[in-house]
Amino acid sequence: MKRYSVALKLFDEMRQWAAPVDQYTMTILINCCCLLKRVDFGFAIFGVFFKLGHKPDVTTFNTLLKGFFLDGNVAEAEKLFKKVLTLNLCEPDDVTILTAIDGLCKAGRVHTARDLLLLLENGLIAFRHLDFANFCTLPP
Prior knowledge:
The chain is mostly helical. Helices cover 64% and strands 0% of the residues. The chain has helices at 4-16, 23-35, 39-51, 58-70, 74-86, 94-106, 110-121. The longest helix has 13 residues, at 4-16.
């Protein structure tokens, strides 16, 4: 369907009716903004997220990470990924890791993606859920 602007308008209507907003609603809004290549709006909503007292989860960070890659902002995606890992903002899941690897490869940063994969394989990044058999290994 890909009617993200319609979803944003529906959210406005929900707010006018005083419908409750939770972390899932906010993550959906952030996703709509990111898919419209408006990560800046997504981060504005992320700020409201905290204002309302919600705690972002791994899905929220995955959404922002994917948004940066879709927008072509690889440097910001890398910064966010490193912050998630170093500050323990959430526990990365397979979607986090595969989004980073996919985004890096699509941006032509295959060696960086391979380095990330090697860190995972060598256990230098703690990660429990990724099944390496699900994707092919990059050549040396």
